[in-house]
């Protein structure tokens, strides 16, 4: 893109679902309205919409709704449609590094001095374990479902600890609810002044699974993303292979007994350079 002199970039998805001649039909509106971005939508053409398989229709509508709610662009439809025009100067302003930030945050926590919890900003913090932290992301307080939350950041259930966690966990006592709580471990690191907080960006997807409805929503979300992208979310074997912790031969050995489920075939296709 840096070497081209073009002022506009035409976009067509590589799955061959769209006739590239549609781009020419959209170009006039793109120019006449001085738009930053235009995209096609099958939602306005009943015949085109019906050509999609039922599972694609469901997935498209589901992801479109998520996009509307997360971005505030309620007029956007057919979000999975990959046909449109984009001004080059607008594209150059996009910060693509946000895609890599979560991976970087995770890597930074692989060898912590103390404990690290991940947090996500929510509108109803009283439903969650809530963490309060300072400008240096040092935890100040952490409470389980507080009536008066001290922040809007919910602890999402992703934790990194140093080896001290082994002894800390051995000494954890049942809470007032009669349960061994992960919050007790975090509280001990907080007492020692060694609890850090990593915040997730708004673009990261975090779904609560504390109720039947929310668990169903999360399951649907994962299913749609996996079917659409062909990637399995949460594959420890793939992660180990990509990081060089196991060899190709070891990955194939792990995949062999899982081939009937389809997951094994996915592992066989994994490439170390793939995302």
Strand content: 15-25%
Radius of gyration: 23 Å
Largest sheet: spatial strand order:
1-3-2
Q: In total, how many beta strands?
A: 8
Oligomer: single chain
Mean pLDDT: 79
Shape: globular
CATH class (first level) name of the largest domain: Alpha Beta
Can you characterise this structure?
The chain is of the alpha+beta class and 275 residues long. It folds into three domains: 8-91, no CATH class; 98-199, Spore Coat Polysaccharide Biosynthesis Protein SpsA, Chain A; 233-275, no CATH class. The chain is 39% helix and 16% strand. It contains eleven helices and eight strands. It has helices at 21-32, 46-50, 54-71, 88-91, 98-108, 165-170, 182-191, 212-229, 236-242, 248-255, 263-269, and strands at 8-11, 37-39, 84-87, 115-121, 129-133, 139-144, 153-161, 195-199. It has a three-stranded antiparallel sheet. The protein has a three-stranded mixed sheet with strand order 7-4-8. Strands 5-6 form a two-stranded antiparallel sheet. A hairpin with a 5-residue loop joins strand 5 (129-133) and strand 6. Helix 3 packs across helix 8 and helix 10 runs antiparallel to helix 11. The protein is globular, with a radius of gyration of 23 Å. The two termini are 22 Å apart. The model has no long low-confidence stretch (mean pLDDT 79).
